[in-house]
Design a protein that fits this description.
The structure is a homotetramer. By secondary structure, the first copy, chain A, is α/β, with parallel strands linked by helices. In chain A, 40% of the residues lie in helices and 25% in strands. A seven-stranded mixed β-sheet of chain A has the order 12-11-7-10-9-8-15. Strand 13 (268-272) of chain B pairs antiparallel with strand 12 (256-260) of chain C, so a sheet runs across the interface.
């Protein structure tokens, strides 16, 4: 590679993948995260002319290996399709590059565990993108729980619904409802309760689109988690809510309750002869969670800079993945599945 | 009259007028107010047959004087048209009967003052029905202000809108917007702020119905009150809100703010592709304030029973009436009017 | 019995039991339900002197059989302890008296079925008090679902939490969490979804009070119902919410969502330097559901008057009871239970 | 100046003043507004070293004249103290530079008019920063009004309260409550109603801080505007609300009502034994209106690029300034002031 602009007191970052998420991370790294210095972007298929128009003279390479092996790069952001994550992450580890990789690390629990272990053994920071942990409202809720505002939490109920069905093409390679979609909620439930799950009971349903069944997936799911102390989580998932992106959470304890409500498109209220009307929820994850991606990246860069552990632990990644497996097994076998069975 | 059923430890009550308000008071007195004993009802025009069907063998007389002079009656409830209030109240006072009279006591400020003074001189309890002081939500708000929850109040803003225009026939004899409608807000503003008004600036507008102008009235008004310490009230009135009975209040002080919101027809929320929808406010005073009439009557009966002053002072009645006059004068003369001018 | 006041066009009613619910029903029947004529009250233990003070010369008997066999009575309201329900209901049936009985009819599913069948065979109207079906907000929600406002319902989520733990004495004879408490939600879930349940998965937890465990009950439960078409209900129960009586429901479908929110003690909002504050939910079922008891009784009396079926079907009673059994079995056996197993 | 990087299809912008607002505009121009190209920044007092640290090698000059006269600059953003606005704007006009200037253009109405006229005569675009017109919620409300969603508007009520008192030093040179603070509301009222004001009645009060009186200003004001058709606006201002930045608006018409509610710091709700609690409103204009500054600048740059008029008309600037004068006069003379008097 050409010599990029290396600065002290900054983490030199390379970004792999210029899809929707890659562009979000790139923008945040370039504009908002003071201690990040983007040195190059790699994408095997993105048109160079287009890149030039959008990013000026930022270094651009087609060959991801060139980026991963560059001595000018400290950390790599991986925002490529899931199927490529594991190989890229491993190459990063081998080249001693800190890695931020979009979720899931891999559809295979074994590979997930192996890679996380390898990174840990070699002391290479590896963080998976559970961005919702960095959402303002969820963070405030977590903080309130930590501070004892609701006492001992007894149940967390998560509502997670997409505004519209994904394409069947996407569904085919997504890993299925639990691995692709509910995985956020597995992580969020553990994050909010700060307790360990011992049992999963999941039910899936093709409610909207029979095509889902043909590719072996569901568009609707209801998952109950039981924690070690007998407390619960309920995860309510739908691939489609006509009223938009439905992202809510409620956690009840012996001293109180916290709700995270939907963020609406505006704060206006219209009264007319038919009723009182408000705007719909923000309609996509890029609207609803846009700030969380920035805070997430800031946390990653901050951890590298301060040489502290990345804020999502290996155990968090493994458990979210394992719960996705357990939920699938529970749905398939129509029975509650103990986590102990899965290990 | 025949001998009614006289009980000890109860106030024996007669009700005059079986219109909408008379029936509400009668029902409350008969069913809910333990220490009231309804002995008779008087109405010169109500069909006796109808009365029998509705109230069984309750004593019914056509002649209001018979009721007012009956030794079996301790207290009289007057729920007749406004034009009859003064004469009936005076007869009650002359016969040493405690009186509860619907607002306004009289359209004339002079007569109002004279009657209140006479009752006071003779020691006859006389209470005028400012029911909103007894509304659960307004009472709670008043309590919070009294307890210093918002510190020193700087402004009270009252929104008072009817769901639909009254008949022009009613408007003609109503005393006009300020005397008939805003009068509730004059009283409420003083009740909430617990300060005395020194200036009124009122503007009226025929916004909905040109017929209003023909009978010398307005259907819309905006009144600003200034209290002795320079703080304010804003009274926003409309005879018509397409979304129903709009009854709100907001009071701001140096330590906080209290809002009384509309009571909606139900607590349901509907989400669909067009938005998030709630039910309209309760649609009339008989729905919105139904409980307040009962609490108001309870307060009246309680004061008689305990021989304590009725909970609305002469000064409250006089000031509300005087403010209605001042507002009319301000609107007519297109200038702020000092209360000192009115006395 | 002495001769009570028999009226035409009215249903002559006798009330058995003067506990909290009996008094609520009695008041509604006497004051609000035009076509009911209360002829007598029976309670073996209620002090007669106390009764006289409260109800004047209303006929009062100690012997419930006297009431049930009286030719002056058309219908009986049973508001006694659960353990006495079955015997009293059977005597009513045998004496051809229409019966309204508080839920549950009996803790035994067999007895429940037998009695319902007997009443049906003999053409005696028998209605069990699932009052929440008559709550304004739930009725509006049900209506909206029926009208297709949310399309095909996919999930109903019910939150039902009491403000404080019942006494252990009560718990011992209550029939347990599912029969005593969740039973309302079993009925509500079927009522809202208008679909039949095929599977129950229930988990219980002693979260607040170890005494619960000693008497073989739980204070917390989470129940998942699966309907015949694969859609769901989630019932979230707690015997204690520090913030009061938590009564909410949410039903999501392919065209929208409806929420029934808590009814708060008032509609005021306080802003101060610590935040924005609202009042707690109405604190008990007698506050939150007070109107529903009246509407429920009105529906019962109306059905008798019009000789139409009572508005809650035998199947509703049986299914709610059966679901309570199935939930208990599911919790005990730690597995989902098919309704088919229970029959 | 050195040769900056001149691009086609972009507006080359210079920014004068690196205070709080200057930095916000600079950031938006550099990061978010595609068609802006920041060529230089001028500030006579900002430390160059500090500038380098923050903005790298962006061109920085101490001499504002150098920037205004530079042939490399198309448009100038003025974000300096109010007292310097007029002279800078005039120099921009004389040098044929498009200008965006923070409000107010000048404390003198005469100078304001003269400068606007001069810019118009010479065809130089000049826009004053009434950013609230570009706030998402206010824009949506304005759109709904334009579309007839509430019919003919009868009253707009604006609540505008700062979270804390400004320094007395600031107050001294601010132009006073109406010119510095209420001016936003004068503009907003006209923008929302789309009607012309004919009368102002304003009252001011020193409620919080006696120091205000010493420098001839107030900390609290209540202003009533009357529009040509007799409809109203009420502007409620306070320099201090303990619960944060209170920014609300309500507009009522013959077909409905729209409210713009406060934007809260998060969407969480906490229930505990004391009540139901929400977060306070976003605490400052830089939080609440941060997006509006970007949209405002985008509108300015877009107008220059497309050679369309800037989206705020001269009449808007003149009327807002004139209303500030009229309000001051009304407060001082304790009477309603006609706009006709002011011209």
């Amino acid at each position: 590679m050409d010599k990029p602009n290396r600065l002290t007191n900054k983490i030199n970052v390379g970004v792999i993948g210029l899809g929707r998420m890659g562009k979000i991370h790139l923008k945040n790294l370039m504009q908002a995260i003071t201690h990040a210095n983007v040195v190059a972007v790699a994408d095997p298929v993105y048109p160079e002319e287009q890149f030039r128009k959008e990013y000026g003279d930022l270094l651009f390479v087609k060959d991801v290996i060139e980026l991963i092996t560059s001595p000018d790069v400290d950390a790599i952001i991986i925002a490529t399709p899931t199927s490529t994550h594991a190989a890229l992450v491993e190459q990063c580890i081998d080249n001693d590059k800190s890695v931020f990789c979009e979720k899931p690390l891999d559809l295979s629990l074994e590979i997930t565990k192996t890679l996380l272990q390898k990174a840990e053994n070699l002391g290479v920071p590896l963080m998976i993108g559970f961005n919702r942990r960095f959402d303002r409202d969820f963070m405030e809720a977590r903080k309130a729980v930590s501070e004892g505002k609701i006492g001992n939490p007894q149940i967390v109920k998560i509502t997670n619904r997409d505004p519209s069905l994904p394409s069947i093409e996407f569904v085919k390679t997504s890993g299925g409802m639990f691995m692709d979609f509910t995985i956020h909620d597995f992580d969020m439930a553990r994050y909010m309760m700060d307790k360990e799950v011992v049992e999963v009971y999941a039910k899936g349903l093709v409610f909207f689109d029979e095509e889902m069944a043909k590719v072996g997936d569901v568009d609707t799911a209801l998952t109950t988690l039981t924690f070690a102390d007998g407390t619960y989580a309920v995860l309510d998932n739908s691939r489609k809510a006509v009223f938009g992106y439905d992202q809510r959470l409620e956690i009840f304890g012996d001293k109180g309750m916290i709700q995270v409500e939907n963020n609406l498109a505006n704060r206006n209220v219209l009264y007319n002869e038919n009723g009182i009307h408000q705007a719909l929820p923000l309609n996509s994850f890029t609207q609803r969670y846009i700030d969380s991606y920035c805070k997430e990246m800031e946390a990653f860069i901050g951890a590298l800079l301060n040489k502290t552990p990345v804020p999502i632990k290996n155990e968090d990644i493994i458990m979210a993945t394992l719960l996705a497996y357990a939920a699938k097994k529970s749905m398939d076998e129509q029975r509650p599945v103990k986590i102990a069975e899965m290990k």
